[in-house]
Amino acid sequence: MTADQPLSREQLHELAQQLRVDSVRAAAAGGSGHPTSSMSAADLMAVLLAKHLRYDFSSAEKRANDHLVFSKGHASPLLYAMYKLAGAIDDEELLTFRHFGSRLQGHPTPEIPWVDVATGSLGQGLPISVGIALAGKRLEHADFRVWVLCGDSELAEGSMWEAFEHAGHAQLDNLIAVVDVNRLGQRGPTMHEWDTSSLAARATACGWDVQEIDGHDIEAVDAAYERALAAGVPAAIFARTKKGSGVAAVEDQPNQHGKPIEDPAAAIEELGGERSLRVEVKRPPEPQPYEIVREAVERPAYESGEKVATRAAYGDALAWLGAIDEKVVALDGEVGNSTYAERFAAKHPDRFFEMYIAEQQMVAAAVGLQTRGWKPFASSFGAFLSRAYDFIRMGAISAADFKLCGSHVGVSIGPDGPSQMALEDIAAFRAVLDSVVLYPSDANQAVELLDAMRRHRGFSYMRTTREKTPVLYEAGETFEIGGSRTLRTGDDDAVTLIGAGITLHECLTAADELASNGIPARVVDLYSVKPVDAGTIVVAARETGALITVEDHWAEGGIGETVAGVLARAGSGTPLVSLAVSGRPGSGPPEALLAAAGIDSAHVVSAAEDVVAGNS
Amino acid sequence: MTADQPLSREQLHELAQQLRVDSVRAAAAGGSGHPTSSMSAADLMAVLLAKHLRYDFSSAEKRANDHLVFSKGHASPLLYAMYKLAGAIDDEELLTFRHFGSRLQGHPTPEIPWVDVATGSLGQGLPISVGIALAGKRLEHADFRVWVLCGDSELAEGSMWEAFEHAGHAQLDNLIAVVDVNRLGQRGPTMHEWDTSSLAARATACGWDVQEIDGHDIEAVDAAYERALAAGVPAAIFARTKKGSGVAAVEDQPNQHGKPIEDPAAAIEELGGERSLRVEVKRPPEPQPYEIVREAVERPAYESGEKVATRAAYGDALAWLGAIDEKVVALDGEVGNSTYAERFAAKHPDRFFEMYIAEQQMVAAAVGLQTRGWKPFASSFGAFLSRAYDFIRMGAISAADFKLCGSHVGVSIGPDGPSQMALEDIAAFRAVLDSVVLYPSDANQAVELLDAMRRHRGFSYMRTTREKTPVLYEAGETFEIGGSRTLRTGDDDAVTLIGAGITLHECLTAADELASNGIPARVVDLYSVKPVDAGTIVVAARETGALITVEDHWAEGGIGETVAGVLARAGSGTPLVSLAVSGRPGSGPPEALLAAAGIDSAHVVSAAEDVVAGNS
Predict the structure, then answer these.
(1) Closest to B153 (Cβ–Cβ): which among A190, A197, A357?
(2) Are B381 and B388 in contact (CB under 8 A)?
(3) Contact B338 A186 (CB under 8 A)
(4) Cβ–Cβ < 8 Å for B66, B136
(5) What confidence tens digit (pLDDT) does each residue in B112-160 have?
(6) Does the beta-carbon distance from A390 to B389 stay under 8 Å?
(7) Which of B270, B359, B448, B551 is labelled catalytic?
(8) Helices H, strands E: what count in chain B?
(9) Which of A106, A427, A586 sits opposite B416 (nearest CB)?
(10) Paired residues of B525 in beta bridges
């Protein structure tokens, strides 16, 4: 069948039946999976694939291709059946579903070239699609459309409503959400079942064009897509469907979620048997060129001894990166005057995205933007990035290239109190697949490391300090991901002090005091917490009598445990004392809080004296 | 002034002016803070305190007291000014705002007896209040009301809409959200500024009674509260206000967020000067008794050698705990047939809360429920609890007593793929203030540890395994938080294998194989990852030649680094090899995935042989 000749309702129904049959077959072959959640959306996706999607499956990289995101990632059998219907995969591959080594995993991942992002944690596909649509609308002025198949259960996730809100605000008329309202969640009925009125009213209030249709009425589906494409605003189609539709044994039945059909042969027969239909999916139009205006910005450089907060350096450096790399874009969660993302916005307003206080949508938009080759830097207080942890986790599973900056880390922020202090970000972001975690200790280093993040592909994170700290390094000095810098060293060092960020300055102060007490101390700036410079640590362990780590972070999963892991792998018996935030912090001046947490220079001195005395 | 005599509009205005003046004074004394965000809501809170709130400040524990939650926690000066107006604190204490050691921190925390939960991470107060309201409505059938002061900026957080949705669904007529629509966020205008129509339409669609008023019109405010109390459904009041209202220099001005008024003396004069008014806040009615029905449930006990998934034991044990402790309640994120929370629901339906797929609201509700003395256990897939990380972080800052269970951890879940695998939960939850992280290795141990979680006060987390594993321990055997169990030990152990959960079984298999190869191995079940049994590890390090940790989790922040930290603190030079999930997992059978990740028994054997050979 080709798109040139109009397909009859019967022909479209046949396509949908093939999608159902193949969903049943894939799940049967895989021994697990979600055929019933696939069958409910088969008519919706058959009409989309045959009549409206514009996609050159032979060239997934094609810039003008539409995007198709399965926000309900568990409907992967349907997605893979669509690939077969489009001729992108063959039947043999379809039946490798969920097999070890197959790219047709339980939930879609970008190991498949036509998949933009991994889904399967519900409530993420739509907010990520907002990012893709923003790229098309705001940056590329492109004709592609973003189609998102959503589940009804996932509309309970607040992140979906962040997406409705933001898409309406940004008037993303290239975004079409198709909601498969099949009434049944994993364990039973959804909150609203088939009453779509509340959901529709909310989407309407967010500025969307909203339709409520019968998702098995092929003509209604077709008409809904026609209207959505012409809406001029983001469009939502709430399609009432039956889970497991087409097979009486499971159709609209409870306890049929996430498992193969018990009798697949009978189901396939009831659906009219196996088919080998193919559709010619419409090709996208030729992509149009677009232009990015780049205002010139000097590379920031700070004078030695000057006091500059690394968060301010982040803003300066980001503005500079925007000038040297037109792919750099920035997002912020309504705190740009604190993270200093506003300095990028001032220079490159077209490439700045104000995401308001919606950190999940912010990170999701970053992940969406990078699917189009943009290099997103997103910032908020480090503490509030914890809000988006699941999105970061999934972004890494997508192997997405996105960069985050968390400001206001640690107790050293002072009077705002513990709700605003990131004390878990190193631990949380180290425990992300293939992540990079950087913690600059001065402003010039922050500039260099941010450029390193720009060049790095994958998820990277920089934590920045609220307080101003003295500039230590020369402007333009090179710092690499995975490196460290030894600031004080001598042949008779009795102890090594390891810090990063604000605690490096405490280490330097402590080293001065220790020196005057006759205890020479090495000082290492461990600005790259992951990957870590194990070599320097191991040498320090061998050459000095003891190591002391100091961090403005909880002990768990932070710099101390990173170093402990290095020593353990090396089989080193050198004593390690790890100073980290202990107790429950409150409000107060930064110095008082550093002291109360046990991580100021006085505590470093005391720990060093104790460990050296113990060693001697 | 007392509540007995009706207060005039002028008198109420005077109270509001005192709240403004004291907000200005507190921020001036603290040298930082959010006076303008306080002043916008002064009229709203003056009328509430003087006329509608029922609260005995002399007895914060009083069960019948209303609850007042500042979801916009940065308006803390206003809250503390209200305490002064109510006579709960004196002027001297008010002026300790944000001082080191003062309980009047930058954002409210429960160190103050009248504060239920810490706020300051926006978008949390309302969802937590849903939990408090659920306690009143569903469990206690109590008369108290929950008043929540929300900001307009935080309505961008999806978690707020999870709360609107859930409160509407649960018909929480004891919940009143007062939204201070002051039009200005931290860095500039909000998305909707004073156009409350979209927000109002959405709240209405969620089933709330909605009013849009002028938040500085004292009579309108009063009337709005009257209507809200009689609404019979949750009530939202969208009150248009001016940030910094009452002081021309800052009123509705940009760049006035989060800082003291530049000229406080002039501002105080403009507001009519300092006042020392006091209101008698209405006392609550006498609390009514309520009754909890407890169906008898036997303590679960599993036969040695039987294969039982620890997630199933979670469900069985939770049902039993519900029978022995009427304060135990359970929540689940629409996956109760996978986490087995459904087994609690079947026995104790009145104490089970279906939270749908809204993990933030689920954890928030747990935190809310525990403010009333309930012992909430909330469950979902471990991977999806990452969605609620900021709520868990803040719950710990609140010193809240709540318990989470994450199922389906690690690559061993098999075919569903990486989106469903919790591989970061140990790291993330260890890095939470005063947390407990447990990882049972068999079903009987899971029962005992869940009871230990019930008895523990604070945040505790249990990770459970999807796959069935053999029962190792006798029913009723005691396991304590902070303990471990040595399963194999001998005088000539060459190596210690440390696992937990599914990897303990790999360790046991490996120990058998090593024994047959002439390498005696000790095996330790490190079921309590935090706090950890350092003593047993240190002894093993001393008595055996090497340690090997094995975990179905990323290397960062997991069991391996926990053990490395212990060894480092002890100055041990015993070699440690940490096996953890490496590479990007996909779909497949659990055995294949454990092997591919490098954490099955074959990898343990090989690592042990290598390290023993290296030592000899």
Answers:
(1) A357
(2) no
(3) yes
(4) no
(5) 999 999 999 999 999 999 999 999 999 999 999 999 999 999 999 999 9
(6) yes
(7) B359
(8) 23, 19
(9) A106
(10) B485, B499
